Amino acid sequence: MEDHHRVCARAALAISAFLAASIVSWPAWGGEPDLSGIYWATAYSARIEIVGGGQLPFTEAGKAAYERNIAGLRDESLSDDARKFCVPDGLPRVWATPYPFEIVQGPPGNVTILHELNHQVRAVRLNKEMPGYRDLLAFPAYNGHSVGRYEDDTLVVETAGFNGKTFADATGAPQSDEMRTVERIRKVSPTQLEVVITVIDPEYYAKEWQARFVYNLRNDLRIEDYLCGEAHRDISSVAGVRRP
Amino acid sequence: MNAAIGKRTSIAVTRCFLACALCAAIVVWSAPASAQTTPAKESIPELASASFAWRATRAEWSDPPAGMRGPIKNDPEHPYHGNLDGPGQVTVRMGNWRDPVLKPWAGAQMRASNEEVLSGKRQVPFTAQARCYPGGVPGQLLYPAEPFYFIQTPKQVWMIWQRDHMVRRIYLTDKHSETVKPSWFGESIGRYENGDTLIVDTIGLSTKNSYIDNFRTPHTERLHVVERFKPAGDGRTLEALVKVDDPDTFNEPLHMVQRWRKVPNPLLETVCAENNADHFDQGLFPIPQADKPDF
To answer: A24 to chain B: nearest residue by CA?
Structure first.
């Protein structure tokens, strides 16, 4: 009998605790997950690591473009404008940032992603149609045009309308202006954010590929001003960062 | 298992179920009650939207209400004739370095900047946003051609300029940090007042290439800026009254006004460094670049 009481008391407590927690986090319950905060990577890789390992699945054109980019970056006939002039990195490269970034679930109807690196701002419009093909052609952007939606605990962001002037990573992996990406952004623990990005770029890649990034929640930080060529935050704690 | 034990178990289960239901009911019932007892949300000006933004009406400060010391003006000896000022030779902005509000060092620096233009060394003097530099505080408010956006959360306000995606962050706290490392946009703290005004208090502003206006009026790290943002005209315009206090640069605080129109533009990407070479050989101030990448 005592056992029954104990089990019963525990069950009652557990159910109340669950309900209380659900109510406390009411705005997030059945609506959108709370992804807001400042995040910072603990590791950086110049070469993008793809999910499942192995090499990027280049097409012939992709392979040729990659070799041209590598040679151009080496003999400096080609500049890496994201580093030299601090233009936006594009996707997925911006996720390989060794600097903190922040996600703000606002203004209403938008999610805004603000990077310290190159003070990049991405506006993700929620539950909107992607602009038409002609509009995307007329207004190409380094970070493209993004629309998003919540699927349970995940923010799903679709992006198109890139300008084809970006590299997929710091080694010069090529990208075309026909590229599309899908990002799935979610908390994998109360203090960790995961971004899985799928890259669809048939001109340079024979099949779609994915990259995965994990960041720590760092609400103890503030995002700092960033101007090209100035001294910035110390990023030596991020594994894999090599100071030139 | 005999029938008696079975019955006892079933009673226990029923009781347990009732207990759970009671606990759940208390939690569910008490939650809205506690929500009701919290004070009503204080009203704040609606500055943030995904569908509208604010576009500045001028690239110069307007005069404050009568009785307040106003902004630095153009040098009367070299009148300004802008692109939109009708027929005539376009000129660039030359600050009135003789303004008695300026400390001697500041007047001398402005005069030297004017001389640089008059001598032809720089046909177009430094203008932060034209050359991809942050405009600082309060200079950033003067950027005219593209709108800026707010995001408002209970703890923070962001101001995002479409142009080169410059971002200012305002922390809704009542105290500045004990030590502030000087930076382009400094440390801004803010609060709402009267339900219609956002008051932003900024210190910690770095001085290199940082000016309070487009006349290249300099400042020191003692600069203290208080901005009062308030919607006007049925919410179709936004106005800021800005107080600039820097006893090492000005003999008294300056008061200046900027206004914006509400425009129905979603935020786009505008990259300043793109196509920004000195095509006409005007001795333009070089845009920022990193000779060595950070990583």
So the answer is: B31
